[in-house]
Amino acid sequence: MSDLKKRLAVVAVATIAIFGGIAFVAYLLVGTPAPVAPAEIVKVKVPDTSPRHVVIGSSVEGRTIDSYTYGRGGTRLGFVGGMHGGYEWNSILLAYDLMDYLTAHPESIPANLSITVIPDANPDGVHKVLGAEGRFTALDVPTGTDLVPGRYNADTVDLNRNFACNWQATSTFLGKITSAGTAAFSEPEARAIRDFVLANTPKAMVFLHSKSGAVYASECNNGILPKTLEIMNVYARAAGYRAINVFDAYKITGDAEGWLASIGIPAITVELTTHETVEWERNLSGIKALFEYYKTQ
Length: 297
Prior knowledge:
This protein has helices at residues 3-31, 89-104, 123-130, 188-200, 226-239, 256-262, 280-295; strands at residues 52-58, 64-70, 75-80, 113-118, 170-173, 176-179, 204-210, 214-216, 242-244, 267-272. It is an alpha/beta fold. The chain has two domains: 3-41; 52-295, 3-Layer(aba) Sandwich (Aminopeptidase), CATH 3.40.630. α5 crosses α7. The protein starts with a helix and ends with a helix.
């Protein structure tokens, strides 16, 4: 091969190499998709909406009394169902509905709040008339069941007469004499509520009952706390219940709400309209209004 042909061949090879390199770089810059990280190293943080479960005590017959806390804020609100067990079983179902809602809608809880639900404060009373263990539904309540025996714990004590606000050994229920235990907090179920309150110092407590269709304030010996009146009206207006300052249908001693008032913690009683209905939507409105109220407290 002549020198000229050799030089032309070298030039051709160099040109191909240069343009090939440019094309390859362009392909890398334009034609190659962005690298994708392997699936095993891609981590998506999923919010944990499961409640924090704590056994706060046990009943006379050894059934657990459970609390479930939602949210991470420093201001705690407490909700208690089933103080009167199977007699007011719908108050327990309302507490269950609240737990389901908070699990499904964690965004409904303001950042500054923690919400604790104690769905069944008297599991022996539930078992006495329903035969139910743990969570149940309205279908588990036999038609024509005499619910009154389920009001009491296994010691036949009315737990909402066993707290330290003007406690006495006997009290009344619908004009009838009822046992309030051998002393204030003689019953393990009442002690469980007391110990929870003393350990956590909630800003307010809501007790779910039936069947007056109203929201009641609480007091012991020094009148109604101003905050109690405020939250009673907040809940009642939103839920469409009557707001009643003082329960005066008959004399009550040793009630949980009165004991809370005596230690400076606002407490209200939400009474459903019947012993069967849950009235979820109206109570959800009341609960949301209470959340909004404490959002700025």
